[in-house]
Amino acid sequence: MAKITLDNLAHSYLPNPKGEQDYALKELNHDWVDGEAYALLGSSGCGKSTLLNIISGLLHPSQGRILFDDKDVTHAPTTERNIAQVFQFPVVYDTMTVRDNLAFPLRNRGADAAYVRDRVQQIAQMIGMEEMLNRKARGLTADAKQKISLGRGMVREDVNALLFDEPLTVIDPHMKWELRTQLKSLHHEFGHTMIYVTHDQTEALTFADKVVVMYDGRVVQMGTPQELFERPEHTFVGYFIGSPGMNVLDATVSGDKAVLNGTEIALGQGFGAVSGKVELGVRPEFTTLTSGDTGLPVTVKRVEDVGRHKIVRADFNGTEINVIAEEGSSISPDANRIVFDPAGINIYADSWRVAPAGEK
């Protein structure tokens, strides 16, 4: 296991990058703690796989260094980094049995035969393939082959880090949940440093101790699922995390008041005079539909019942605002206002969160 340090790290696929816009991975400076589980979360093309491949040694960065436990491994080959990596699509040896596929990383390092046997049995049980151990990998389904890849990545106990690049893409939905649970269990048992790349927020939030949200080649926030939900540091985090995501509205902010298209609302905290492109962000969970004269005037467009709650889609001067209402609650036909819980309001300037006065 290892602490992973990204020191002034950046990468461009162009031979002579001229500016920041030419970098697929913009400058990063982060320490990832030994033994924690991280998820790299973001939309396609944001730099997740580029960063993972730099960590594994499959790609050399254009600038900066990568360190394992303060040892510079920037130019070290993958074999010297002592990592295990599982890719998006299954990589197996078709002519080998499932047992031999799982045992290969251990035998390749001269592990004791009895240990190999016991460890392979343990991993096979974990991935639900005990009955298939003596079958050849050729002819197995794509999701079965991916389970072999996962198992082969997890079979070694001495790795510095386990890296997963969207490993559950070809796995059926029910098995995805089971394998995520098993990966979490493995992490708790052995304490490996794990880095898991995904564009699926459910996978990220249920797997990781810390979620690293990436946008346009940079890390915009790293934090616990609760921190990402309650205090999105960038409007992309608010939009990307949650279903539906955070409501983001143009605003003018001065002190503890905001004006949204002529309507003034109380913020509950002071922000001073905020300049730049100013926006107010509030999650649907902190938004209430009501009637009367208080709040933002809206028109309800539709109500969606998703089982555990209702989602109200309302229009505010051409901008959609989403409201989450409790299951079983009735939506009054007279409802024409939206009010925000001040505890759930965040203010942004040029897409970045502005801390209120006195916040620690």
From TrEMBL:
The keyword Transport applies. GO terms for cellular component: ATP-binding cassette (ABC) transporter complex, substrate-binding subunit-containing. Keywords: ATP-binding, Cell membrane, Membrane, Nucleotide-binding, Transport. Residues 4-241 form the ABC transporter domain. SMART domains: AAA. Pfam families: ABC_tran, OB_MalK. One of its GO terms (molecular function) is ABC-type ferric iron transporter activity. InterPro entries: AAA+_ATPase, ABC_transporter-like_ATP-bd, ABC_transpr_FbpC, ABC_transpr_MalK/UgpC-like, Mo/tungstate-bd_C_term_dom, NA-bd_OB-fold, OB_MalK-like, P-loop_NTPase. PROSITE patterns: ABC_TRANSPORTER_2. Belongs to the ABC transporter superfamily. PANTHER family: ABC TRANSPORTER ATP-BINDING PROTEIN, MALTODEXTRIN IMPORT ATP-BINDING PROTEIN MSMX. This is ABC transporter ATP-binding protein. It comes from Neptunicoccus cionae.
